[in-house]
Amino acid sequence: MPYRRTESVIRRLAAREQAILDAARIEAARGGMAAVQIIPVAGRAGIATGTVYRYFPAKADLVSQLIADVAERELDAMRAAAGAAPGPLSALAAAIATFAARAMSERKLAWAVMAEPAEPEADAARRDFRAALSDELQQRMRVAIVRGYLPGQDVTIAAPAIVGALLEGLIGPMAPAVDDDPAKTREAVQTATLLCLRALGVGDARAFGLVAQLPLGRRD
Amino acid sequence: MPYRRTESVIRRLAAREQAILDAARIEAARGGMAAVQIIPVAGRAGIATGTVYRYFPAKADLVSQLIADVAERELDAMRAAAGAAPGPLSALAAAIATFAARAMSERKLAWAVMAEPAEPEADAARRDFRAALSDELQQRMRVAIVRGYLPGQDVTIAAPAIVGALLEGLIGPMAPAVDDDPAKTREAVQTATLLCLRALGVGDARAFGLVAQLPLGRRD
DNA sequence: CGAACGAATGAATGTCAATTCACTCGATTC
DNA sequence: GAATCGAGTGAATTGACATTCATTCGTTCG
Question: CA B179 to CA B176: how far, in whole Å?
């Protein structure tokens, strides 16, 4: 008779898989994608190296899953923030600012997950993340354009450009250091959001108003 | 008595070093940074693998030099274009558009040199490139701000944000395909430049006027 | 309780590139 | 033109990781 998986075993397996992903995320947040290596990850998760392969057939699968997990959280947060906004333009502003603020709170992880290359297979996961991010912005931009809040424009260029501006402007190697100063961080997020809104054709005065009203500063 | 380096020997050595760099650039343009490997590069340059090490102590040095070379060309082109412009704002527009147009003409190489990670040492060269690019834009932005052409703003965020917007919007994995269609390419460059100018606070109408006047479409 | 099973282990192995080095060969010197 | 220099060669070495697998260990079943 085939063996049955007890409730507790199922829980343990799931917990272990999560522990591996958590360990990978911590490594990535510390040393970038290059630091996501099987032996250290296994060590941090408190298991043997071989065990990692019971949960993920190859390292690329682990990395892909890590990226997908982070992506899901970020997209959820953006949608939640945008959904709570009163109109299309403030929804767009909220989505942008939320992404910016969350990326700032985990700069290295955000950079590793979005910008650092790795195995080609993991690249697909990153592509998906970026595509989803762009899509999210594109949707909201289209609504805003149709309703006359934004001038007509090529959203297939504008949306990724916004993503790039936020990444480079806030968490890229050239971005100004904000250390962990919450005031500086907040200000940087506002500056970047303002810049993005203007880039999309929101008038200076109106953009300023939108940014001033943003409910910044929450955490997951 | 120490050996003298004949004129012809000096020329041959210089030519060979250039051949190695050219080979590396071709590989990068084809397959990204991952394709810059010593054996293929040596093969393409028509020499043995060991010979590469007579010219570059380590692969990281070769990659760094490659990045620095590309950076120098791009910065020169930007400065030349900006220098030929009639005023601070059109100079800024010209610098942005020139960078955008040139990156588009060698998308994969531009991406490899600016965005793909590699050895940590090569990362320093990329950092320098980005810093120089940001600096170039910052200088021009400051001038434009002082003379009242642009609203006051944090240029240390704005400059890298512009770079990021161009990279992601035009040559990143999410950017729309333009294949080799010159009309599409030209239009994409205009769209992206317009977006950048608006991001910096140039009014929509004026930005449109600046972009329309850009002398686009030259090559090195 | 004692098979039987699947999960866990981690040392050993495989893989992929960078790097080395003992040797060859053409150029330079006297 | 013989002696010497130093560039060029490429097979072999090294190093850094990912991946495997024979074995151990804890659970589940009869």
Answer: 9
CA–CA separation, A171 vs A190, rounded Å? 14
- Nucleotide C24 C1' to residue B47 CA (A): 15
Q: Which CA-bearing residue is nearest the C1' of D17?
A: A37
Q: Is B17 exposed, middle or buried (0-12, 13-18, 19+ CB in 10 A)?
A: middle
Instruction: State the angle between helix axes of B7-31 and B38-45 in degrees (0 to 180), rounded to the nearest 10.
Output: 130
Residue-wise pLDDT for B143-158, tens only, equals: 999 999 999 999 999 9
Take residue A160 and report the two structure tokens written for it: 């990724």
Cβ atoms of B195 and A157 within 8 Å: the answer is yes
Please give the share of chain A, as a percent, with pLDDT higher than 70: 96
Mean predicted confidence (pLDDT) in A125-137? 95
Token pair belonging to B60: 């990281």
How far, in Å, is the CA of B91 from the C1' of nucleotide C14? Answer: 56
- Tokens found for residue A124: 């697909």
> What averages of pLDDT result for each successive group of 10 residues across chain B (220 residues)?
70 92 97 94 96 95 96 98 96 98 95 83 90 97 98 97 97 90 95 98 94 70
Amino acid in the structure at residue A174: M
Q: Which residue is nearest to nucleotide D30 (CA to C1')?
A: A1
Based on the number of CB atoms within 10 Å of its own CB, is A39 exposed (0-12), middle (13-18) or buried (19 or more)? exposed
Angstrom distance (rounded) from CA B31 to CA B55: 23
Where are the alpha helices (H) located in chain B, listed in sequence order? Answer: 7-31, 38-45, 49-55, 59-83, 88-105, 107-114, 120-146, 155-166, 182-199, 204-213
Q: Is A201 left (phi over 0), alpha (psi -120 to 50) or beta?
A: left
What distance in Å separates residue A73's CA from the closest CA in chain B?
A: 20
Other Cβ atoms within 10 Å of A59 Cβ, number? 19
d(Cα A198, Cα A175) in Å, to the nearest integer?
19
Mean pLDDT over all residues of chain B? 92
Q: What are phi and psi of B117, to 5 degrees?
A: -85, 165
Nearest alpha carbon to residue B213 among B80, B92, B73: B92
Could you tell me the pTM of the whole model? 0.91
